[in-house]
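Holo model, glutathione. Inputs:
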Amino acid sequence: MTAPTVLSFFDKDTKTYSHVVADGHAGVCAVIDSVLDFDIKSGRTGTEGADALIAAVKERRWRADWVLETHAHADHLTAGPYVKAALGGQIAIGAQIPVVQATFARIYNLGSEFAPDGRQFDRLFADGDTFKIGTLAARVMATPGHTPACITYVVGDAAFIGDTLFAPDYGSARCDFPGGDARTLYRSIQRILSLPPETRLYQCHDYPPDGREPAPCATVTTQRASNVHLAGKDEDAFVAMREARDKKLEMPALLLPAVQINIRAGALPPAEPNGVSYLKIPVNRF
Ligand SMILES: N[C@@H](CCC(=O)N[C@@H](CS)C(=O)NCC(=O)O)C(=O)O
Ligand SMILES: [Fe+2]
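Output:
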């Protein structure tokens, strides 16, 4: 099997990892979890981070066949449409995304202009679906828990696990967003850890403690041996720990602006008659 080439890009503002997984020989890649910069103070989007990723792909003369999301992110805006316009590719996300869209359509009180049925994306991937990146075979695993629609992309000896496990010294993803569930996450993590021991598990975030550089991945072996949220814990103990921790977490700084764009596959809400697109903030809803 051809080993995939992986490039990883770290967004310091939201501590998000975007990845590019490529069949270098065929010159074809997939972009995973891209980030659009967003300045909440001015309401301005920016493309500095996405441009660096796009430049790295262009430099290698790769074409993107896929612009993949592991889930509808709650802490940053996706740059999916911007990446697609620059590199090509179909925008894809998990097949359960309508569940997330329906929940947030209620929260934002979106009108009939927004259809919570996944049509905003080019492709919806369900558990067990397969697709190609050049000659590389990619396989989808449903890994819900952080959100109901989270998926993992397995490409050769690399797996893009989104928000499930984080670095061994940090642990796991929160489960307190609408539709999140700690027990479901635990079971998804067990499925991920049943991949071959040498599999590189690429995370969507790293929140390194002071003094440690961010790291994009850890192997199944390393996660099994040393993840602080798993060591010595069975399912019930994990759930108790996760739920207790989640009670203490603040909302991500960009949740309210980000989700209303991410459930639209990265499109801004339709412009108002003056040509400007507006975001909504539900007051006293959370
Ligand atoms: N302080 C961060 C929080 C980000 C956050 O909540 N990240 C989620 C992933 S979208 C998570 O699972 N965090 C795990 C945790 O903090 O335990 C922000 O404002 O963006
Ligand atoms: Fe997330």
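The helical segments are 48-59, 80-87, 97-107, 182-193, 220-226, 235-248, 255-262. The chain has a mean pLDDT of 97.
Archived with the compound record.
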